[in-house]
Batch of 3 targets.
Target 1
Amino acid sequence: MQNKDLVARIAGQLQAGQPKSAIYAALRSQEHDPRLAYLLASAASPARQVQMANKNRALIVVMVAQAMLALFAGYVSGQLLGGSAGVWLAVFYALVPLAFAAGFSRYQAAAFNVYLLYTLIRLPQLVQQAMAGGLLEVWLLLLALLTLLLTWQVRRGLFPDFGVTLQPRKDASGKFTFSD
């Protein structure tokens, strides 16, 4: 079965109110267990979407604000290069936070997971810049940390079946477990 078919069946069954463990048992086959478990873990139930809607909106607003700041920073940086570089750098810098905002608005688990990894990879560089720089770099570091924490909280609320390793959770015997 293709991923699109599985995603559609999972979404339909979640809308009908079936728990993820029942969906997993019904669709399970030995060759597709990890893929099915990932697709189930990355599907936010409608109840969780309603529960986390305000925090998710706040996260989207933060991403759009970061896109506006990136747009300005890209334009200023590009003006130093001359020509139309300001416009191109502004658009390029703003696309990354806007792409994350689009993923967050669609409740895509991959957007949350990639943002967490992206920020964790950038964190040492931001800390180094804050130690060497001025007040602006400290504010950028604080903004990144607060956004990281908010993203982690929203992701944990929407997709509780992911572990710290960003893989579906397993119990002690190695079987996939689901909270809904």
Target 2
Amino acid sequence: MSMNDLRRLDLNLLVTLDVLLAERNVTRAAQRLHFSQPSVSVHLAKLRDIFGDPLLLPGPRGMQPTARAEELRTPLRQALEALSQAVQPGKPFDPATADNTWRVAAADYGETAVLLPALAGLRKAAPGTRLAVVQLEPARIAKLAEQGDIDLALHTAEGAPQHLHRQTLFSEQYVLAGRSGHPHLKRAPTLAQFCKLEHVIVSTAGGAFYGVTDDALAQRGLQRKVVLSVPHFLFVRAALLSTDLVAMLPSRLVRGMPGLRVVAPPVDVRGYDMVMVWHERSHRDPAHQWLRSHIAASV
């Protein structure tokens, strides 16, 4: 069949052929299709012209399919069944029987503050599903979401792509943290004491010794002593536990962590909103909606 012939086909013709091959009788086919008998005959004539084959011939016990019609029977039935399933309303999502594999882009902060609180409930509610946490690449979030390579991305509101759907999960604030026995954190330090402490900073871009805390200090004509710059929060927590370094960290990262003392900083550092973002392609998908709801309810 040529492309031009394919364009001449419509769904009604294919449905008629499927029923004719099952019934092998124009009258019974018309009854099943709720068509008039002449309409079915017209469809059959069009099909014969398109396929260049009689398809169904008169026989002693009804119409008999030609060899070409026999070739068409199974693939046509399969195609119509697949099309029927495709256009049916989406089935409600049942997490208990689901087998989805979800991909979420997150940095280590998002893993700790967002995904970890949601994980136990996710495993209990949807034990047949899998979760892949992939490296957060801020510049590629939009493209990866559009291509379906990630389902969600966890990011600060300020840096997240504006054209994606988003939901704010929480507002985060910075606290000052050091080891429990730190000699200068028995009480909240003064601003002068804060600047003299040795600080570790998280630089996700790598190697920077300046951040939002330094911006806030600079507005007062002050600066602190940053002696260590690392790309991951996990290393910061380990460094604090084993040295007298201190760090300005998001509160959820150190909340309830044993071995650390957390105090209010003597300088007001602007916090941020944490959001999850996703593409329009999955916005109405019941499984995706359930995952988003579960994460939002867990943090």
Target 3
Amino acid sequence: MTDQDAPPSTTARTVLVTGATGYIGSRLIPRLLRDGHTVRAAVTDLDKVRGRWWADRVELVRMDVLDAATVEEAVDGVDAVYYLIHGMGGADFALKDRASAENMAWAVAAAGVGTVVYLSGLVPDVPEEQLSEHITSRLEVERILSGASSGTRTLTLRAAIVSGSGSTSFEIVRQISERMPVQAVPGWMDSRVQPIAVVDVVEALAGALHAESESRSYDVGGPERMPYTTLLDRYAEAAGLSRPQVSVPGLPTDLVGVLAGAITDVPASTVEALVESLHHDMVCHDVDWTYDLLPEDYSLVGVDESFRRALALPDESVPVEERDPLGPMPGDPVWAGGQGGGLASAVAGARAVVTGLTGRLRTSPR
């Protein structure tokens, strides 16, 4: 069975999707509608969602997760909540993550919501004091949702690199590959990653509603593990690019994050947070999710196929609701999409490196 063939659910529910206009949320909502669920889409700005093709098929509700009153109103009367909210940058992102999770945990407990499904990040097998700020915050949110939501079943899906056009991690790989004719790779960047196609993430999220397990976390990843440098090679091959790699020892993590943020169009704070996580293997510890969350005989999408489908240009003659979610979709971030890897991309990358280094030197203490 493929990601496009999953059968509809026989148990329809009323479901709140937070982060509805985000990358995952905007692809999950059509999947839930196909299953026959009643979807309530929570957004901070109603105007930003009205152009989506599914907007007239869902109940739209304005919710600011830092405003407890709006959270309480949003969860009232729903059977399940998808928590797809992540802070990725700024000095206070962990504080906001904590406050947001506490508001949601209190609201779902008070409303008697049956299930919360949280999409988090893979937690490497290292002591917690060695985790990045990004992963530490995700783990804290998971514990708040699981511990404070008394009586609510909380299922956390932990994913690392999500592959698909418009995905933050995919766009970083795409734009670095296009804009760096020679890839200077830090000597410490030999950790393994386990990418997962966005269609497989969405399938697992949809299946979590009907999983028979009690509150727990699931590591979700695709069928292949590889060093991050190999992932860059695989992307370059899929995109038809020649990108030799040069290992550079001694590059500090923060400098790599600054340069990667300068090279790409992805928000710099997001890039820096993700780079910090690459010091450790980001791979699944088990395969329980494939049994508990996916339909029988479901086939996971491999890395090369996910890249091929993500890079395919959309057929404008095909209705949006019938397009491949791995490819570009209306509403994806404005910084998504590549420039083709030509001379202009290389020049842009070189300028970005110079700009990043100059900014680094100017802000370094003397």
